[in-house]
Amino acid sequence: MFQNIQELVFGRLTIEDFIHEPIMAGAGIAMVGGLLLAMGALTFFKKWKWLWKNWITTLDPKKIGVMYILVSVIMLLRGLADAMLLRAQQATNGSAELLSSDHFQQIFSAHGSIMIFFVAMGIIFGIFNLIIPSQIGARDVAFPFLNSVSFWLFAAGMILINAPLVVGEFSTAGWLAYPPLSGIEYSPGVGVDYWIWSLQIAGIGSLLSGINFFVTILKMRAPGMKMMQMPIFTWSALSSTFLIMFAFPILTATLGLLSLDRLIDTNFFTSDGGGNPMMYVNLIWAWGHPEVYILVLPAFGIFSEVVATFSRKKLFGYTSMVVALIAITFLSFTVWLHHFFTMGSGAAVNTFFGIMTMIIAIPTGVKVFNWIFTMYRGRVTFTTPMLWFMGFIVTFTIGGLTGVLMSVPPADFQFHNSLFLVAHFHTMIVGGVLFGAFAGFTYWFPKFTGFTLNERLGKYAFWNWIIGFLLAFVPLYILGFMGAVRRLDHYDASMGWQGLFIVAGVGVAIICVGVGFQVLQIVYSIIKRKENRVGTDPWGARTLEWSTATPPAEYVFATIPEVTSRDQFWEDKKKKHSAVFKPKYEDIWLPKNSGAGPMIGVFALAFGVGIIWYMWWLVIIGLIGVILTIIIRLTSDETEEKLTAAQVAKHELKRGTV
Amino acid sequence: MRKEKKRDFRRVKQVGISSLIAIAIVALFIFVTHGRDIPVLDPKGLIANQERDLILITFALGMLVVIPVFIMLFSIAWRYRASNTKAKYEPDMDGSRGLEALWWTIPCLIIIVLSIITAVSTHALDPYKPISSSVQPVKIQVVSMNWKWLFIYPEEGIATLNYMNIPKDTPIELTLTSDAPMNSFWVPALAGQIYTMAGMSTKLHLMADDAGTFNGSSANISGDGFADMRFKVNALSEVDYKKWAFDNFNSTTTTLLTADSYNKLAEDRKDASEKAYLLMDHDLFKEIIDKYMSPGGSKIKTAIPEKADH
């Protein structure tokens, strides 16, 4: 009787699920402790109301962007801690008895999933939110409420993926959880369910966000801005969100089917009963490959802005750049099979996907040449964003070379699932996406704060990162040649791999020093902000987001700019007559705050917890909660408030922009 | 003047420090790699040899782009640094038809060459393609299990656990499946890898050029004991191989591999021991695949019918 009630209420959750190994328990306690500390501070300083009004319920994309980036930074630190543990385990060859193989497998699964879904995606969406609307001369995104929903689904997913530190365990099946290993037979615990549902919930958020920004870019551009006058970052965002719209539904469906296999014994991906795990591998990569470009295209966009600005010159070959972006966008859907040349496809199939993969190298190569030639006959200043750009070209070219090596199927037979592959995709994602994010962060930081980040500390961070990066990943390339496969928690000592693993560990430690400098850089710059105060346009930038006040007003543009050319802001500055006439203000409608977004996030989280632990009542509450909240929100009027022309004028006067 | 001197000194210091760091890193890499076995680049098998050549050709073609990129990146960045006011400055230069055409064309040409190489090599090195040789191939069936590798020699009537003996200079025809999660069979010194999957079979052909012992590993995560799923491949002379197979087949101490003992072996257990078996059931491999085909599937662990004893 008692057992039945317990099962009804708690599903498969028992008290033992809270008991963890020391390292995991430590991480869990640190996480919960940090949360409690933050909550205590909020209570002590009476900031709850401020938090609710200014942040949690906000529909302002600039604030949502900041929240995305905050979450990503915290997750980056978590992912980095995971990486440290993995490297420590491999450098000691398991002799330190640091991690059990089960724990080791949980950590690499978490490291990959977190870095892709909650760091890279979060940064991308954060930067979209902060930059895209103002870069196209818009005040807001197309669907401000949907934007808030996206963020809170992302946050719910983030909480779910970190929850195993406190209760239960995480998946041990790797970041893409191939069945049958991820099936109920081989992974009966909650781990894979945690993985599925955190990705599923965050993934739906990403999909919604993708739609939102795609529509924003297509429909909300300032009058006069033709497609071919959009800044390249906007173009890259358009391509990236296009990919999101077509790729993420595949992820949702695939995870859904895997979940059905686990929950109600269907046989989509099982080895028996007519299922086929190869189907899963195909589907997950049909999403997974475009996902790589979803992440890296915006980074391309950032670098395009950065290199043009700091060379004080127009971007070289704008049309080529756009054509290359579009080509990459479409080609990225035609190469997924190169992730499993070794699954036994025929030679003709492998040849096709191999050649398609190489073809992507063409537009990518063109972009690299155009970036380099943007500096040609320019005046290049080597600020930190520019250093990240240089580092990016170096790493990305190496990564491109190793990528082409793996695109030849018979060569890939020797690289697949080895540490060579691991080194390759880290070269692309660290050197591409992360370096891009760092460049973008340093570049746009003064736009939103009014002061620049300390250059000296930024340069220290860069040099630690690039040296650490080489030390961390070059050994992995070599280990791949030596036959070391990925995901080993220990290996035969007679192979002679340990020296390289130690070097790789030292590399990660140096990267950590780099991250330390970055944290220091932010803290130091905030404390010494008076020294680095700058105006609205510290870099001599080219695009519209720099024409606004710093930090931008909630409505961003008091008057919507008219666009007649590329690099509109640069052209305006050249003409220098923009301030001559008195601007005509008009009423501005802004979305009101809404608690519905965070509510949906909370209910989605409840749904996730319920379905992971088989607490069916919580699943029902979560589902009904989400649906009801949506209905309530959709039926409510007056979701916007008016800022009258007079108020706008007053604001603008106060800012002294007139 | 003095300022300039100071700047010069700083530059010398910078160059000095960075070259020291670079030398230290290179020395470190030499230290941790010299004398090590690098099977992908120093293979001992026919297929792996060709794969190595392919890797090197592709690498060379790639360098045709990589080297100019690096040279241009650093020379242009240096030449047009802001402090070099002598360099030309054209803020409105926004492209060049000729140059852009050049770097659309050159990568295209390289990729065309590489595509041809890919098409030819992918067909030539198709793992399903038998190796043409005057020597009769040896057939071996490979089963990845949790967490060990079973090698069945149907023609020799024997089986081995966690090691595979092969005759050198003889084509080896591997048929692979899994009685556990998906795995990947990889002996880098002999050939690239191929997946093993339950309920189906894949194929791989390889041939050892030299006698010797080569390391094989599981390249795809398959659960808890995956890191220990290593195996050795011993390439023997043909005489030694025949003798080994014969001895095992005729030894009275060899363990029998019956349906029963197979089922016991197939249980989830780490087992790194090397064993030889006398194969009692010549259809064992087919039955391992078939048990995922029957309704009810893998849950029925006794799907393999009992065979008469030795």
Give the distance, in angstroms, between the N- and C-terminal Cα atoms of chain B: 97 Å
| Most residues in contact, chain pair and counts | A-B, 104 and 106 residues
**What helical percentage do the residues of chain B reach?**
25-40%
Question: What is the beta-strand fraction of chain A?
Answer: under 5%
What features would you describe in this structure?
- The complex is a heterodimer of chains A (658) and B (310).
- With 658 residues, chain A is mainly alpha-helical.
- Chain A has a domain of 296 residues: Cytochrome C Oxidase, Chain A, CATH 1.20.210.10.
- Helices cover 67% and strands 1% of the residues of chain A.
- In chain A, strands 1-2 form a two-stranded antiparallel ribbon.
- In chain A, helix 5 runs parallel beside helix 14 and helix 15 runs antiparallel to helix 16.
- Chain A is globular.
- Chain A starts with a helix and ends with a helix.
- The mean pLDDT of chain A is 93.
- Chain B is of the alpha+beta class.
- Chain B folds into two domains: 80 residues; 162 residues, Sandwich (Immunoglobulin-like), CATH 2.60.40.
- In chain B, 39% of the residues lie in helices and 22% in strands.
- In chain B, the strands form two sheets. A seven-stranded mixed sheet of chain B has the order 8-5-1-2-3-12-11. In chain B, strands 4-10-9-6-7 form a five-stranded mixed sheet.
- The longest helix of chain B is centred in the first third of the chain and has 34 residues.
- Chain B is elongated and about 90 Å long.
- At the A-B interface, helix 5, helix 10, helix 11, helix 12 and helix 13 of A face helix 1, helix 2, helix 3, strand 7 and strand 9 of B.
Please render the helix and strand layout as text.
The complex is a heterodimer of chains A (658) and B (310).
Chain A: H1 2-10, H2 22-44, H3 48-56, H4 61-91, H5 101-135, H6 144-162, H7 191-219, H8 232-264, H9 277-310, H10 318-331, H11 347-374, H12 384-407, H13 409-415, H14 419-449, H15 455-481, H16 498-527, H17 568-575, E1 588-591, H18 596-613, H19 616-635, E2 640-643, H20 645-655
Helix pairs in contact in A: 4-5, 4-6, 4-16, 5-6, 5-7, 5-14, 6-7, 6-18, 7-8, 7-18, 8-9, 8-10, 9-11, 9-14, 10-11, 11-12, 12-14, 12-15, 14-15, 15-16, 18-19
Chain B: H1 2-33, H2 46-79, H3 97-124, E1 138-145, E2 148-153, E3 158-161, E4 163-167, E5 172-178, E6 183-187, E7 191-196, E8 202-206, E9 212-218, E10 230-236, H4 238-250, E11 255-257, H5 259-265, E12 275-279, H6 284-290
Parallel strand pairs in B: 1-5, 4-10, 11-12
Antiparallel strand pairs in B: 1-2, 2-3, 3-12, 5-8, 6-7, 6-9, 9-10
Helix pairs in contact in B: 2-3
